[in-house]
DNA sequence: GAATATTAGTTTGAATTCAAACTAATATTA
DNA sequence: TAATATTAGTTTGAATTCAAACTAATATTC
């Protein structure tokens, strides 16, 4: 019993390393592409922008949750985006604790140029991998995260 | 054709987010466990130590490659480990460019206490996920990384 | 063998992450 | 309603990451 469990855990450790490798490579590829277009736009800033393209007007806490970034990191990144005039911070009318983050026109417009590059990079990574395998894998990763919640917290 | 490709890419983007989430949670769980034992040992330092447990005496470049960390990050982390007397830096006799990194006795000994905790965390994450699925996914991630090499560089 | 290129590691400064303590606003409870 | 707890966001300082320029050592080429 114990042996099998440890074998699986050791394999999961390798999976984690493989994920790090993929993330590192992916970051590098995307960063290179966008730097050519806009030298002032980092991969991390793009992560936030990319989320807002899908969900404009959410608050910082939700950005923090959905990008798995510490909320102080989000404060830092939003400040940087505000400085670049890519987003605006707007207090929630009813609950003034919430700061809603909205894309500016500029923030919306760069989507046309940037998003295709990001998508292209991920398409390259996918190669001819089967769509179902990809889905299955995503489900598995999410399940592993959920399993940790059951213990960790 | 284009549609299908984009659909897969978008899914890969979700996979990447799921991986971030898992890494973040994993980091948090493991950091909490080891902080209780040794408040002076970070997750990142442990990543290096953990590699050395398997491959003692490799040089910094190899550590950099295998952990997907920038070599300047490795310099920083090794310095921190040397300060804590967990590893030693030894110049390669034949090629003095290489600095070989060796665990000290202390570095070896903490394995008994720490490694089980790490393994346990990954075992928790695995839950009752099928071993074959786990293997298959690791292979897939590595393939995605390799696909990027074909383009990115 | 000298000139050149490549490789491993360091240094530097800026960017990002992290945890902990903090402030302000709202929700809950007595 | 007053006291307390919870929530969202900020601030702080330290840790880590990153890219670029740099040094030293070795390999390659002429």
Explain what you see:
Two copies of one chain form a homodimer. By secondary structure, chain A is mainly α. Chain A has a single domain, classed as Arc Repressor Mutant, subunit A. Chain A contains six helices and two strands; from the N terminus they run ααααββαα. Chain A has helices at residues 2-37, 43-54, 60-67, 71-83, 105-126, 131-152, and strands spanning 87-91, 99-103. In chain A, strands 1-2 form a two-stranded antiparallel ribbon. The longest helix of chain A is centred in the first third of the chain and has 36 residues, at 2-37. Chain A is globular and about 55 Å long. The mean pLDDT of chain A is 93. Chains A and B meet through α1, α5 and α6 of A and α1, α5 and α6 of B. Chain A binds a DNA duplex (30 and 30 nucleotides) through residues 31, 42, 44, 59-61, 64, 69-77, 80, 95-99.
Which two protein chains have the largest interface (Cβ within 8 Å of the partner's Cβ), and how many residues from each? A-B, 59 and 59 residues
CATH fold name of chain A: Arc Repressor Mutant, subunit A
Poorly predicted ranges of chain A: none
Shape of chain A: globular
Give the total of beta strands of chain A: 2
Span between N and C termini of chain A?
25 Å
Radius of gyration of chain A: 18 Å
Helical/strand content category of chain A: mainly alpha
What is the string of helix and strand elements of chain A?
HHHHEEHH
Oligomer: homodimer
């Amino acid at each position: 019993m114990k042996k099998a469990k440890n074998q699986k855990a050791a394999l999961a450790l390798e999976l984690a390393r493989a994920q790090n490798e993929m993330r590192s490579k992916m970051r590098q590829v995307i960063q290179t592409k966008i730097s050519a277009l806009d030298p002032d736009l980092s991969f991390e800033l793009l992560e936030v922008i990319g989320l807002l393209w899908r969900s404009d007007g959410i608050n910082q806490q939700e950005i923090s949750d959905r990008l798995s970034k510490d909320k102080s990191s989000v404060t830092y990144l939003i400040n940087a985006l505000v400085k670049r005039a890519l987003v605006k911070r707007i207090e929630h009318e009813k609950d003034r604790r919430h700061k809603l983050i909205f894309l500016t026109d500029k923030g919306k417009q760069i989507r046309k140029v940037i998003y295709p590059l990001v998508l292209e990079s991920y398409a390259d990574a996918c190669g001819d991998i089967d769509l179902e395998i990809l889905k299955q894998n995503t489900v598995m990763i999410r399940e592993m995260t959920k399993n940790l919640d059951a213990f960790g917290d």
